[in-house]
Design goal:
Helix content: over 70%
Number of strands: 0
Mean pLDDT: 81
Number of helices: 6
Order of helices and strands: HHHHHH
Shape: elongated
Low-confidence stretches: none
Length: about 160
């Protein structure tokens, strides 16, 4: 399979594989980022790695659900129909829900003192970041396809004019 086929195919199997590659890459990036940020902590590397792998495996699915909710439900239903207030409200509610569930999954309780760290972590490298990266990739892909279609139409128009 060529890279072009992998990126632009609409076959369900290839799409699922493409999404799995994206989320696996994001998972590895998050683990490496955490290990780099905590490299000065005096604990075993393998213990730190194990804790981070387990924590991310528990927490990341909640962020993934939010990302798909935003991209495949909120954007088409509200943002593209210029209902900006409802779109922002939906993003806000989903973000609050993600922070709440991540706090419960991480600390096994909802703790208002730890919520501020959760908010900072969420904004800096959580849902908004990987959702924006996901949206950027999707927009660039759409732009590329539309640009190719435009070029093809221009070429066909030029050939039609030359034939006359």
């Amino acid at each position: 399979m060529r890279l072009y086929d992998f990126v632009f195919s609409n076959k369900p199997v290839v799409r699922i594989l493409r999404h799995a590659v994206f989320w696996t890459t994001w998972y590895i990036y998050q683990v490496m980022l955490f290990l780099y940020n905590n490299s000065n902590v005096q604990s075993s590397f393998w213990l730190t790695l194990k804790i981070r792998l387990e924590k991310l495996a528990t927490v990341m699915p909640v962020g993934i659900l939010q990302c798909y909710l935003i991209i495949y439900w909120l954007i088409p239903r509200f943002l593209l129909r210029k209902r900006y207030g409802l779109f922002l409200f939906g993003v806000f509610i989903s973000s609050v829900a993600v922070i709440y569930f991540v706090d419960i999954l991480t600390y096994k309780k909802f703790d208002f003192l730890s919520i501020w760290m959760g908010i900072v972590s969420y904004i800096s490298r959580g849902g908004p970041v990987f959702c924006l990266i996901f949206i950027i990739i999707k927009m660039l892909k759409t732009w590329y396809i539309k640009d190719r279609e435009k070029d093809m139409l221009l070429r066909e128009n030029l050939n039609a004019e030359l034939d006359l």
